[in-house]
Amino acid sequence: MRSSITAAFTVLLALGLGSAFTSVARAADAPEKETSCTDGVDDDLDTVTDCADADCYADPACQPDGVAENSNERCHDWIDNDQDGHIDCDDSDCEGPGITVCKGSWDRQQAKAASNGSNNGNQALPELPEGSSFEDLLGKAGDIDGERNDQDCADGIDNDGDGAVDCADFGCRFDPSVLVCREAPNIRFSVVSFIQGSYNFESEEKDFNFKTLQLRAFGPIPFIQDSFFLLSSRFEKSPRLTFAMFQIPIGGGYYLNINSGGGGLTSALIRSATKQLLVEAPYYLYSAFEQGNGAAVEIGGPITNDGKLNYYVFGGGGSGRYSGNVGGRYFTYDNTNFTYAFGAQLDFNAIGHTSRWDSPMLFVPVPTALNFRLGAKYDQRAQERYPAFNMQATFKSGPLILLGEGYLKRELEFESWQGAYNFQIGFLAIKKTLLLAADFGQYLAGEMKNPPAVAETDIRRQDDETQWRVALHWYFFRNIGVLSLLYDDHLVKDNTSGTETHDRILSLIAQYRF
Description:
This protein has a 16-stranded antiparallel beta barrel with strand order 1-2-3-4-5-6-7-8-9-10-11-12-13-14-15-16. It has helices at about 1-30, 105-115, 170-175, 285, and strands at about 190-200, 205-220, 230-235, 240-250, 255-260, 295-300, 310-320, 340-350, 365-380, 385-400, 400-410, 415-430, 435-445, 465-475, 480-495, 500-514. The longest helix has 28 residues, at about 1-30. β12 and β13 form a beta hairpin. By secondary structure, the chain is mainly β. It has a domain at about 185-514: Beta Barrel (Porin). The protein is elongated, with a radius of gyration of 29 Å. The protein contains 4 helices and 16 strands.
C-alpha cells in the first residue's frame, strides 16, 4: 500500500515538475509584450490578456467608444466603454437584464443554452446590432410582448401565447420595470419615494415636502408554485400597511386573488403596483365609483388559450369606511352600515397583448398593441347604492401610448346619473431619456331628483370637475430615477352654491422607484 502511494506521489511530482519546466521554457520563448490586443491570447504570458494588459492601453482596439456597457461582450472586454470610470463588472450597467458574465456560472450556462436555442424554456437570443440593448428585443424574434409586469411574470402562465412562460419571456427578462425576474424569482424588496416642490399660481402658495415613502415586499409565496404576493407600507402621518395582496393559481391558468381594499374595475388606484403618466391617478375619475372595501376576493384568467380574451370577477365588503389600509377602517357620522361591492370585467386584446398591470411609463419603444376592457359592478355604500359601468382602451405603438377610461353610474336612491372620463397621451421623445405626457378629463355629477336630507360621506363632494395636465419626465437613472415637471389646471364647481375653485399648480417631482 505504501509503495503504491509513493509511486503515485512520484508520478504527480514528475508531472508537476514537467509542467513547471514547460512553463519556464514557454516564458523564455514568449515575447516581451502583447503582440496582438484582440486575439484573446496571453501572448507575453504575464497572466493578463489583450486590453487587460498594460501593453494594450494605447492600442486603438482598446479605446472606449462612448457606448454603454450593455452586452456580455462589452462587459468583459476590459474597456471602460462609456467612460464613467468603471470597467466591466465594476460598472452597474453590467447588472442589467440579459447580462450574465458578471454572475455565477449557472446563469452563464443558462444564457449560453438560450442563445443556442436549447429547449430550456427560454427564447433564443439573436445577435444585437451595435449600440442596441436587450430591451430592443421586446416584440421581436418570436416574442409577442405581452408579459411585462411582476404579476404576469410570476403566475406560471404564458399570458401572451408566444411559447415562453414568465421569466423565459423576453418581456419578463428584459423590461426594466419587471423585478421578479432579476437573477432569481425570489422575494424582493422595493422602495417608492417622491420629493415634490410646488407653486399654486392662483393662491400663490408654495410647498416643498417629502411627499411619499413606500416600502414594498413582493414575489412568490413560499412553497406555493406560480403564486404572487405584494405588501406595501407607507410612511406619512403614521406608518401603516396600505395594501396587501396574495394570489395563487387554481388550475387551468386561473387565479384566486385576496386583497385589502380592492374589489374594483381599475388597477390604477393600486399605487404601489402602477406607475402613472401624470404622476398621480386622476382623482375625479375614481372617487365616486371606486370606494374601498375591508377585503376583497378576485377570480380571473384566460377565456381563450392565446390570451386574446380574459376575464375577472370580484366581490368585497366591510363595515365602515376603508382606504385600502390593513385594519384601517373608520366610521363617519356614526354610520356603521355594512358596505359591499361585486362585479366583473372582460379584457380583449384586439392587437398584440397588454395587461391591466402594465405600466404606461414608456422607457423604450414598444410593439403595437390595442386593448379594450369592459366592466360592470354593483356597489352598496353607507348612504348610496348604484350600478356602475367602466370602459377602458389602451393603444401603444413604438414611442406612443394612448389611454382612455370612463365611468357611468346610476344612483338608485337619489335618482341621478353620474359620469367621468379621462384621456391620456404619452410620447417617448428620446428613448430611455425623455417622456412627454398629457391628459384631460371631467367628472359630471348630474342632478339628484331625490337628494338626501343630509349629505354624508362622498356624496358631499360630488361636484363638477374639469382637469388637464401636462408633464415632462426625465429618466436620469435608468427607469428608476425620474425627474418630472408637472403642470396641473383643475377647476371644481360647487353644485350647491355655484362657486368655483380654480387651481393652477406647477410641480417639480423627483421619483425613485426600485
